[in-house]
Design brief:
CATH class of the largest domain: Alpha Beta
Helix content: 10-25%
CATH architecture of the largest domain: 2-Layer Sandwich
Largest sheet: 4 strands, mixed
Oligomer: single chain
Radius of gyration: 16 Å
Strand content: 35-45%
Length: about 140
């Protein structure tokens, strides 16, 4: 299964919960840093124990995994999560939710290769690209 892994700066739980609600799917396999057995090779600060170590969503057969970093990552500049589907309602509903407090790069509009295509960065700094395929 092709998937995407997203690293967050302490916002993974909020981001994946929002994505789960937007796409109507459950967050799966969510583990926290505090769930790990203690190890001197990988000490976890008390302030980091509630951060997400690993989590995933399955959306229309595709997988998105995510985690919090205890360091800092450059927000979303090098990757897009792509959603390509015939389900126009899924795309238009997700688009409407993700563009709130985000930045639209290319409006969701019909193109020569799809019924709708567009890209944006959401409020969590993740780049998304949507394509609605013809029936």
């Amino acid at each position: 299964m092709l998937g995407h892994y997203l690293m967050f700066n302490r916002t993974c739980a909020d981001a994946l919960a929002a994505y789960a609600e937007i796409f109507g799917v459950p967050v799966q396999d969510q583990q926290r840093y505090g769930d790990m057995p203690p190890s001197p090779d990988f000490p976890v600060a008390e302030a980091d124990k509630d951060l997400v170590l690993h989590s995933r969503l399955v959306i229309d057969g595709g997988e998105i995994m995510g985690a919090d970093s205890t360091g800092r990552h450059q927000i979303g500049s090098n990757m897009y999560v792509t959603v390509t589907t015939k389900d126009a309602d899924l795309v238009t509903n997700a688009w409407a939710a993700l563009e709130v407090d985000g930045e639209v790069y290319m409006p969701l509009t019909p193109t020569f290769f799809s019924l709708g295509h567009g890209s944006l960065r959401d409020r969590f700094g993740v780049n998304w690209m949507f394509t609605i395929l013809a029936e």
